[in-house]
């Protein structure tokens, strides 16, 4: 078998030298590492997701090199890819962008467009870094409020006047009984008009719910994994 090794490989109608394949593979791994670091910076991601972003470019690169110039093989590979499913919970928009970027880099390196892949990766990663440091879309005024009330109170409109005074938006998102049905636990999603008035709002709610438990915290965001 070793006698069959040569300095070039013929993949479809494209002849690739060992040096070209090695250079493309190294660039794919380096760009994958940059993409993985960029899209996982300040994010809680699984080890598998980090590794996936890093090795996706070189895997796509090899596939593209194998099917380049052969329409029949390309159609067969597309059919095989269509059978693949992500068997995990859905990721957020940034995760999807990271996966598509890794695949795009693999497509570029697979067609020997290393400069294009490097410039494209640099531009996207710079934009992502800037976005991570700019407080766009982050609001400390959006809260999740948990209030416990006795069963004798009607929870439908009990706090409406307080919310109208201190919030720009309020919505009851869940109701749960506790204490053998003697208490209700209400969960609201609220947007405060002024975060400095949070204590005043809680004090007024305490007076109305008989000083039972109240919890006001930042709205929880689920950790996305792929």
Protein model, in words:
The chain is an alpha+beta fold and 226 residues long. It has two domains: 2-133, no CATH class; 142-218, LOR/SDH bifunctional enzyme, conserved domain (Alpha-Beta Plaits, 2-Layer Sandwich), CATH 3.30.70.2690. Helix content is 49%, strand content 19%. β1 (8-11) and β2 (14-17) form a beta hairpin. The chain is elongated and about 80 Å long. The model has no long low-confidence stretch (mean pLDDT 80).
Helix-strand layout with pairing:
Layout: E1 8-11, E2 14-17, H1 18-40, H2 47-67, H3 71-81, H4 93-110, H5 114-133, E3 142-150, H6 160-166, E4 167-178, E5 183-192, H7 198-208, E6 214-218
Characteristic terms for this protein:
single chain, 226 residues, alpha+beta, Alpha-Beta Plaits, 2 domains, four-stranded antiparallel β-sheet, two-stranded antiparallel sheet, 7 helices, 19% strand, elongated
Count of discrete structural domains: 2
The count of strands amounts to 6
What string, H for helix and E for strand, traces the elements in order? EEHHHHHEHEEHE
What global shape is seen? elongated
Q: Strand order of the main beta sheet, please?
A: 4-5-3-6
Estimate what percentage of residues fall within beta strands: 15-25%
Rounded Rg:
27 Å
Main sheet characteristics: 4 strands, antiparallel
Summarize the amount of helix as a percent range. Answer: 40-55%
Number of helices: 7
Low-confidence stretches: none
- Given the helix and strand composition, which structural class is it? alpha+beta
The whole-number mean of residue pLDDT values reads: 80
First CA to last CA: what distance?
39 Å
């Amino acid at each position: 078998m070793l006698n069959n090794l040569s300095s070039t490989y013929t993949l479809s109608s494209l002849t690739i030298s060992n040096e070209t394949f090695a250079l493309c593979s190294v660039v794919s791994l380096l760009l994958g590492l940059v993409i993985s670091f960029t899209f996982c910076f300040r994010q809680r991601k699984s080890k598998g997701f980090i590794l996936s972003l890093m090795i996706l470019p070189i895997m796509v690169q090899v596939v593209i090199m194998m099917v380049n110039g052969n329409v029949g093989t390309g159609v067969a590979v597309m059919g095989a890819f269509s059978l693949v499913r992500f068997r995990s919970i859905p990721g957020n928009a940034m995760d999807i962008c990271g996966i598509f970027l890794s695949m795009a880099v693999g497509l570029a390196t697979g067609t020997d467009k290393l400069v294009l892949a490097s410039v494209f990766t640099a531009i996207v990663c710079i934009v992502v870094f800037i976005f991570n440091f700019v407080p766009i879309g982050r609001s400390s005024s959006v809260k999740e409020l948990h209030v416990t009330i006795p069963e004798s109170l009607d929870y439908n409109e009990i706090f409406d006047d307080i919310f109208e005074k201190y919030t720009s938006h309020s919505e009851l998102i869940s109701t749960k009984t506790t204490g053998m049905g003697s208490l209700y636990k209400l969960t609201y999603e609220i947007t405060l008009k002024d975060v400095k008035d949070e204590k005043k709002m809680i004090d007024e709610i305490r007076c109305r719910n008989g000083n039972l438990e109240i919890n006001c915290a930042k709205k929880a965001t689920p950790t996305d994994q792929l």
